[in-house]
Amino acid sequence: MGKIAGLKPSSNNSSLTDSAIQMLKCIGIKKPNSLHSFGSSNKEDFASFGPFIVVLDGHIYNPEDFPSSSKEQTDSERILESLQKISLRETLAKINGDFAIAIFNKQTECLTLARDRFGIKPLYYSSIEGNTGFASSIQSLLYLSFVSKSINPSFLKTAAALNYRFLDADPTRSPFSDIIQVAGGSAVEFTNNSIRTYSFFNWESKEKNQTGLIHHTDYIDLFRDAVARRLKKTSTPMFTLSGGLDSSAVVAMAHRITGVPQPAISSIHNGEAFDEEKEIMDIVNSGIVDWEPISINDPDIFDLLEKAS
Fold it and tell me: Domains in the chain: how many in total?
């Protein structure tokens, strides 16, 4: 899994600029190919065939729904093969995964950016005067010459005044004025100087059990399936454990599936206002995690912001 970035220049600016090269280097591509303005820091997450180029940051958890004759096929190659059989919208709706993806059709010069259903993976873009840059790391977009570092005051005020859970009240907002966030479960299509956004996933469930009713066991089965698919994708899982129900439930399910204590880390604060160690210890003492606390002091936030600006 690697970060992705790319540039679709305007028709009168077809060369890969120095700033675009720096953008690709920022995500870990040491020697960007001058023939490709799209890249991934992981070679397996770049695929090209026919008119399509696919770059992927993330994972597909339902490879069984993307049948292939090759057992060694990567997730980006699965998506590429699916595009030969069904439409892009159908392909995106079919994916069960955490992903940020960019698909470029060289014949139509259409660029499509899409983000997973829950918006787990970040994906940003900036489109100014026909130049369109995208990245799963917002920092890399700031290397593009047409993208300013001007802060979005609306985002800053929301972040300062409200709990972090409210930041997605506007799912397209980002910390920078020139940068837009792709909303979860959505695709953004750039073609002929026009931009079109659409949702590719419908949350209305069409599945029913024999009684036609949904029981709590149905949710537990779905939850177990989601955790199991993610465990299957990694050989070295690591869980971040807070004092809340969400992280505790996930690591508890992972323990139930594997039967062994799961590696977990937590940030422990000196100040009681933010520390959740007491709540975390309920899970630690149960024996379902191999826990490692990480102590955090009381940093000077304003000093850190000064250094970062």
Answer: 2
Pairing of strands 52-60, 97-105: antiparallel
- Which of 165, 199, 233 is the endpoint of a domain? 199
User: Maximum distance among all alpha carbons in the chain?
Assistant: 63
| Alpha carbons 274 and 92: distance in angstroms, whole number | 39
pLDDT in tens, 52-111: 999 999 999 999 999 887 778 999 999 999 999 999 999 999 999 999 999 999 999 999
Residues 36 and 118 in one domain: yes
> Can you tell me the distance from the alpha carbon of 17 to that of 25, in angstroms, rounded to the nearest whole number?
13
- Size of the chain, expressed as the number of residues it contains: 309
Phi, psi of 203 (to 5 degrees): -75, -10
Instruction: Output the pTM of the full model.
Output: 0.86
Domain range for 242 is 216-296
Tokens of 226: 């989601």
Bridge partners (DSSP) of residue 54 are 47, 103
Print the SS3 string covering 14-41: CCCCHHHHHHHHHCCCCCCCCCCCEEEC
For the chain, how are helix, strand and coil distributed in percent, rounded to 5?
30, 25, 40
Sheet holding 239-240, edge to edge: 239-240, 262-269, 289-296
Torsion angle (degrees, nearest 10) of CA 284, 285, 290, 295: 50
**Collapsed DSSP state (helix, strand, coil) of residue 153:** helix
Strands (E), the chain: 4-8, 38-40, 46-49, 52-60, 97-105, 110-115, 124-128, 131-135, 180-181, 186-191, 194-199, 239-240, 262-269, 289-296
